[in-house]
Structure formats: C-alpha cells, structure tokens
Amino acid sequence: xxxxxxxxxxxxxxxxxxxxxxxxxxxxxxxxxxxxxxxxxxxxxxxxxxxxxxxxxxxxxxxxxxxxxxxxxxxxxxxxxxxxxxxxxxxxxxxxxxxxxxxxxxxxxxxxxxxxxxxxxxxxxxxxxxxxxxxxxxxxxxxxxxxxxxxxxxxxxxxxxxxxxxxxxxxxxxxxxxxxxxxxxxxxxxxxxxxxxxxxxxxxxxxxxxxxxxxxxxxxxxxxxxxxxxxxxxxxxxxxxxxxxxxxxxxxxxxxxxxxxxxxxxxxxxxxxxxxxxxxxxxxxxxxxxx
Length: 291
Fold this sequence. Notes:
By secondary structure, this protein is an all-alpha fold. The chain folds into two domains: 1-75, Orthogonal Bundle (Helix Hairpins); 82-290, Up-down Bundle (Four Helix Bundle (Hemerythrin (Met), subunit A)), CATH 1.20.120.80. Helix content is 71%, strand content 0%. The protein is built from eight helices and no strands. It is globular.
C-alpha cells in the first residue's frame, strides 16, 4: 500500500496490487468448475465452490485495501469523482444486463410466438416447425414442453415482495438522511431495518420458488415462460442478495466509526445500487407477474 498523500492536488495511485491477478485466477477456476458441472462432471461442483471461495477472498481483500486507503486519508476530491464515475458506469452496465433480458421477453411475446403460430393466418414457420401451434402466454411450447404448469398470482407473494422492497428503499433513504446530518445511531437503526427487509425479500422469493417448483410444476424446463421467469427473477434475486451483503458491510463500517456527513460515498454507492434493484423489481412485477 502506498504512503498516504494529504496533498489535495495529488491523485492517489496505489502500489502494484496482487488482487487483479488473484481475481482473474478465481474467475477462471469458478468458470471451469461451473462449465464442467453443467456437463455432468462429478468433481466440478467442488471446483466451482473453490472458485466461489477464492472470489470471496479476493473481494474482501481488495475492498479491504480500498477501505484502509480511504480511512488513511489517501483519497482527495479527484479520487472521489473517479469512484462516482466508476459506480455510474457499473450501474449502467447493470441496466444493460437487465435490458437484454427484458428485451428477450418482449421479443418472444411480441414477435417470436405470433410468427411461429402464424398469428391465425398460417405461416411457413407454423407449417414446418410446429404445425398447428397456436401462440399464447404463458407459453410452454408445442405438446406442453415440460408439462402443464400454473403461474404465480401477481397479487400474492410477488406483491408482498414488492411492498418489502419499496419499504426498504424508504428505510435506506431515511438512513442516508441521518448520515448527512450526522445522526450515527439513527443510521444504524434504519440501515439495519433495510438489511432485515433485504433478507426478508430473499426468504420470500426462496419460498416462492419452492412453491412454484414443487406445487405448480413451474420449472426452468417449462417452455419459454419457465426459462424467462427463472432467468429474470433469479438474477434479480441474486442482485438483492449481493446488495444486502453490501449493506451489511456498510453497517459494520458505520459501527466502527467510518464515514462522515461530508464524506460517505461508500454508503452512497450501495444506496444507488439498492435503488436500482428496486426499480428493476417494479419492471419485473409488471411485465413478468401482472401482464
């Protein structure tokens, strides 16, 4: 770690770090394990888990260095701007990530299914691919690929999770305001409430999956609907879990006395991420569950 720079005009540049190299090796091990696990290898699951452990080690080590550099007074206003720009581009990449999945859902429902079915007028696709197939949504393909299934009612568990996430956005906003005015105990209280709501969301979604898979026969193999349902909601659930873990790290940092009313971008960055996850869920609730 480099020697601290307190000159406001000096942009902090750390010494050579091992973490990019360690992170690359970790990702390589993780993906090799995942690919071979998907292809039926008996030992690849443990290679995958080793990759996960290596990634956790990398993240804790790398972010730990950044936190120590920040608390050591190494960062000036220029570094703060760099972090903000980096977080903006990261969230933009996440927007594009989910936009691709929403785009796939839109394309299937608006173009692919009507084209295959002939839209009631017949088509070469209908004749040669699935003769007599009539499009409908939710769709599990011709001959009911994956078997018959039921969908989850929007105004049941999904609505409960919507209320949970919207409430968590409110509690996080209150915690952020408390940080700005220097009320640290209030930050801990409301940030803790946000973390609890995040884990509640994840728990409700886990129960929803168990119910859908076991009782409704809604599975990944349930045609295009099952694939898009688990793809969209599953990736969103992963983001909620990661966001909750990040909020938990911030909570412990607040407990240790990190952040000030003037300088707390680590807190703000996670708040940006959490509000992004909230917005994505509103789109999911509307386009996956309601429509």
